[in-house]
């Protein structure tokens, strides 16, 4: 039986169906950022640009990995979040930003990780973090988040170490 294992490794790729899936930038990043309609206390209608949003890039295409794109406008930040049991790799595709990770002790400040275009960050499962774009320039930052698992798990928290999800999240 042991002699059949090398043959099985050679045959399986020929038997199992596989296909390449391509997701185009135009399917992920809209040409015009999303806008939310608003109404003031006086009843005036208006709108504002969504400052932080996440878009699926490769989801439910592979059994063991998926990816999303997190887009942050200048002077904006995400909610505090974690990815549950999923390990994550963050790649900064454009712009720059700050990855804040949970403080080690209650009352201490979150740890800052400055990230620039082309940088990677490895985020272990259950690690609380927050993404910031502190740029005053008119440049969005785009973070590609690659996670273990076929679909993304994203738990939005009310603050550091709270452990309680915020539903619905107030920011992306």
Describe this entry's structure for a reader.
Helices cover 9% and strands 39% of the residues. The protein is globular. A 5-stranded antiparallel sheet has the order 3-4-12-7-10, with no helix packed on it. The chain has a 4-stranded antiparallel sheet with strand order 5-11-8-9, with no helix packed on it. The longest helix is centred in the N-terminal third of the chain and has 11 residues, at 5-15. It is mainly beta. It has helices at residues 5-15, 25-28, and strands at residues 35-39, 45-49, 52-58, 65-72, 76-77, 80-82, 88-94, 97-101, 111-115, 120-123, 129-133, 141-148, 155-157. A hairpin with a 5-residue loop joins strand 1 (35-39) and strand 2 (45-49). It contains 2 helices and 13 strands; from the N terminus they run ααβββββββββββββ. Mean pLDDT is 83; it is low at 164-172. This is Cupin 2 conserved barrel domain-containing protein.
């Amino acid at each position: 039986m042991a002699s059949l294992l090398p043959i099985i490794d050679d045959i399986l790729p020929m038997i199992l169906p596989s296909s390449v899936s391509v997701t185009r930038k135009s399917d992920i990043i809209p040409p015009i950022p999303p806008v939310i309609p608003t109404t003031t206390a006086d009843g005036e209608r208006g709108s504002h640009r969504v400052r932080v949003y996440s878009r699926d890039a490769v989801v439910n295409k592979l059994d063991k990995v998926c990816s999303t794109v997190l887009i942050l406008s200048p002077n904006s930040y995400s909610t505090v979040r974690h990815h549950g049991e999923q390990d994550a790799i963050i790649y900064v595709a454009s712009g720059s930003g700050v990855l804040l990770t949970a403080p080690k002790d209650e009352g201490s400040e979150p740890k800052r990780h400055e990230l620039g275009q082309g940088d990677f960050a490895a985020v272990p499962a259950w690690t609380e973090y927050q993404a910031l774009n502190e740029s005053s320039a008119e440049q969005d930052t785009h973070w590609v988040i690659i996670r273990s698992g076929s679909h993304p798990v994203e738990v939005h928290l009310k603050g550091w170490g709270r452990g309680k999800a915020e539903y619905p999240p107030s920011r992306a």
